[in-house]
Write a structure and sequence with these properties.
Layout lengths: L2 H12 L3 H18 L16 H14 L1 H17 L4 H18 L7 H17 L6 H19 L8 H29 L5 H30 L3
Protein name: Urease accessory protein UreJ
Organism: Halomicronema hongdechloris C2206
Pfam family, one: HupE_UreJ
């Protein structure tokens, strides 16, 4: 049986549940804000990995347990479907995130990194929600710039590690980011088979949900900055 057809049938059956899914997304986002803040940038509770295995697992975990990172990576995979240039966007993000980690490791700071990371989720959710994308060059440039900031945040968990764990960590977060983006890309492609207005709306709906995640992170960050506890 054609896997694209199976995936499309599953998505079609789930469209009637979109309002419930949106509400659930908001609730889950709120819960994750309460449960995960301490671990968002430290998969092993703040300890620098000292072996290749723990570093690799930390690299796998960082883009997943940080909801802002996860939403951004998913968005890049879905935007890549709409752009029609294969996995160019996710690959640009993975390479740029390694550059960002390198910038962190040589103790160079980036301006307002958390603000840019949150804004990147909102921007890529907005791109997905739009009927048409900007030029491919603009999208890839935005993805690469955002990837540098996400990678800079990833670097916090491995700062001070030896070369072996460092390489394993880089490999871990590169693999998991690409894997998540590929799954999102495949599901998005299945959703657009055949390409109809309703299938396009489903992708735009996903964009609105990702916008909600990015907007929530951004608003929370601004409030915490203006009204510190």
């Amino acid at each position: 049986m054609n896997l694209y057809r199976v995936a499309s049938e599953i998505v079609e059956a789930g469209r009637s549940w979109q309002p419930i899914a949106l509400a659930a997304s908001v609730i889950i986002t709120g819960l994750l804000f309460r449960v995960l803040p301490v671990f968002a940038h430290h998969p092993f509770g703040g300890e620098t990995p000292d072996t290749a295995l723990t570093a690799f697992l930390s690299g796998l975990g960082h883009p997943v347990i940080g909801l802002d990172h996860l939403a951004f990576v998913i968005a890049t995979g879905l935007v890549a479907v709409v752009m029609g240039r294969g996995l160019l966007v996710p690959i640009a993000v993975v390479i740029a995130s390694m550059v960002g980690t390198g910038i962190h490791l040589i103790s160079l700071d980036l301006p307002v990194p958390e603000l840019v990371i949150s804004a990147s989720v909102l921007v890529f959710g907005s791109l997905l929600a739009m009927k048409t994308l900007p030029s491919n060059g603009i999208v890839v440039t935005l993805a690469a710039l955002a990837g540098i900031f996400h990678g800079h945040a990833y670097g916090e968990a491995i700062f001070g590690a030896e070369m072996g764990p460092l390489v394993a960590y880089l490999l871990g977060f590169a693999v998991i980011q690409l894997a998540i983006a590929v799954v999102a890309f495949w599901l998005g492609g299945a959703l657009l088979q055949p390409a109809t207005e309703s299938s396009g709306m489903a992708l735009r709906f996903a964009g609105f949900v990702i916008c909600g995640v990015g907007g929530t992170f951004l608003a929370t960050l601004i409030v915490d900055t203006l009204l510190p506890a």
